[in-house]
Specification:
By secondary structure, the protein is α/β, with parallel strands linked by helices. 48% of the residues lie in helices and 11% in strands. It has a six-stranded mixed sheet, with helices on one face.
Length: 264
Amino acid sequence: GPPNRQKKKADLMKKMQEAKKQREMKENEDEIQVRSTNTQGKAKGSLSAAEIKKQNDLKRFQELLDSESATVNYDINGSNYKTQQQEEEEMDAGYRGVDRIFEGDPAPVEAFQDLVHFATGNALGKNGVSRIVPWLNKSSSKQGDMLVVITDPREKSSELRSVIKNISQLIPADVLSRLIVINADTAAENRRFLSKNQIDNITVYCDEKREWMREYTVLGEKRWAMNLMILKNGRVERLVRELDVELATDVIKASIASIKMENS
């Protein structure tokens, strides 16, 4: 069942991190060796020890994924909130040491201060942040709540707009009250879109300079894309990159279900 799958995923992640650590240690040793070989002159076109090691590591990593993929192959349902492709991409990025936020990392708070509320056109500032970031809330009963965040760095993104329309109708009100959308449009543009589509149950924050998105590493590495995050107790509990417009509603529900399962 899902708990077993979660364990397999955790084991695989552990293997990746272990492999990465060993690779980095080995690379440092190789660097020294390569420098001494370089002084003796090296045949053109031959690979350094570090490069060969890296290639072999990637091959081994691919084999590991292939052997494990049967256990990581699943649909979005219940508490499964990532596709196999998203899982593998995340593990690969962790393995390669890509500089990005991963699940379990601390959630930076300062970045929230400059977000502009779509209705007022005002930046949140310190006081505003403590109202929307649950663990900073003055009321202790709200500090354990989760904050669901959907982001999209593209202006007037048709994918994001489609998701906003869907979730405004398909996601329960108690979840929508803890959900925000962050995009790169102006406050006026967001107001126009929401009022034209008669949507009054979703809060949008403007990040025109995309500084919040940069801080949370959700601009997209290969292309700009939509992302989903769930922040809780000062951490990024869930992070789904390249959120699929068709699956978004199910992914939000499954992400929340997976957190509730962990805490039960």
